[in-house]
């Protein structure tokens, strides 16, 4: 029994120390559905608000030579848009961006020149600093119930004190 526990603990330790971070990629198509691109955002396709994130696009069988490349990132909650001039090479586009707060962002890659492509992707940022409308829920029913409960408790206290005085005046043990 003790040997099985030792082997299990060693296997768990081995798995924990050799685990690699997840590296998922998102395949997106341009708005005309003619070309595909693979988008990878570090860290782990789950960016952290307030920290630098790398956006890497790899286009399928396309050369970007002589093309103008631009990335726009729009915060869906506020509508603010940031325009980034990325680094582009043979079929690859890379940029670094700091998502200012948690929320949902539209990422648009525009390529113009020899060929025109527009790629769009929606990215949720749920870790890190900042707040979003989803991070601070509003419970109006709970607030109203709390208010009514406090008023009822105060009324019950006043009623109990008033009843106590009447009981004392009616008491025959004075």
SS summary, helix count: 2
If you average the pLDDT, what whole number results?
79
- Please trace the helix and strand order, writing H or E for each element: HEEEEEEEEEEEH
The largest sheet, given as strand count, sense and whether it forms a barrel, is: 5 strands, antiparallel
Total number of strands? 11
Rough shape? elongated
Helix content: 25-40%
Radius of gyration: 30 Å
Query: Structural class, please?
Result: alpha+beta
Low-confidence stretches: 19-23
Widest sheet: strand order? 1-2-4-8-7
Distance linking N and C termini = 77 Å
Strand content: 35-45%
Description:
This protein is of the alpha+beta class. Helices cover 28% and strands 36% of the residues. The chain is built from two helices and eleven strands, in the order αβββββββββββα. It has helices spanning 2-18, 140-170, and strands at 26-29, 36-42, 48-49, 52-59, 68-75, 81-84, 87-88, 92-98, 103-112, 117-125, 127-128. It has a five-stranded antiparallel sheet with strand order 1-2-4-8-7, with no helix packed on it. It starts with a helix and ends with a helix. The model is unreliable at 19-23 (pLDDT under 50).
Task: Reconstruct the topology from this structure.
Elements: H1 2-18, E1 26-29, E2 36-42, E3 48-49, E4 52-59, E5 68-75, E6 81-84, E7 87-88, E8 92-98, E9 103-112, E10 117-125, E11 127-128, H2 140-170
Parallel strand pairs: 3-11
Antiparallel strand pairs: 1-2, 2-4, 4-8, 5-6, 5-9, 7-8, 9-10
